[in-house]
Amino acid sequence: MSDFKVSIVNGQVNVLCGDYLPETDIIDLLEFNELKLEDLYQDHAAIQARWEQIAINLKNQYDRFDEEFAKKWWAHNKRFAKLSLLGQGEKNPTVDSIRDTTILFTSRDITDNEREKYIFWAHKASKSKSPDKDIEESIQDFSKQMSKYLLMDPVWYYEVLISTLKTMEANYLTLQNICKRLESRSFHMKELKDLTMAKHGNTGPLTYKQKIDQEFHTQAITAKSKL
Q1: CA 161, CA 78: separation in Å to the nearest integer?
Q2: Within this chain, do residues 109 and 169 fall inside the same structural domain, yes or no?
Q3: What confidence tens digit (pLDDT) does each residue in 65-93 have?
Q4: Domain that holds residue 203
């Protein structure tokens, strides 16, 4: 029994596919020769389907992380980056300047003193925009809110977010590439099988090479008989 199963209950498709794969030599996985063609045909479709499903799972994980975390990370930090720019006196911060400030504030390379300046400016702008001057958020509470992702464990610096996204993207793209090669192998296996021997009398199927050798042998006998 495998851990790759599909069921449909009340119109709901359920896919069970364990994402564990032992270390696999991709060259061994993709290469084939006509002597092993029959054995390869027995499990090629199952192997290809499993790799394709794992690629789908990795792509879905990437999409969920991007939608449910990365986009919220950017929205949160851009909002405070804009406040920081307003606090520095910029009346109409541009999209690029907001993005740059977001990267600078959330970078692991910035010092605590530099980061505190961004918080001070953002808090200053927040106070000026507050409709109720009697209720002002302390800079300590404001700092915790602004630094939300930098207070998490692990800390979500800009570099960590980008590295995570790139790694997840590379993982599913690598699997997709292997799946394309498996699809190509499937096509060439079928092509080779179509070229394979036809039956001659009671003999079993012949490989393409055996068929060529047999035809050459037959032609040689025919030519010799005419001498």
Answers
A1: 14
A2: yes
A3: 999 999 999 999 999 999 999 999 999 99
A4: 196-227
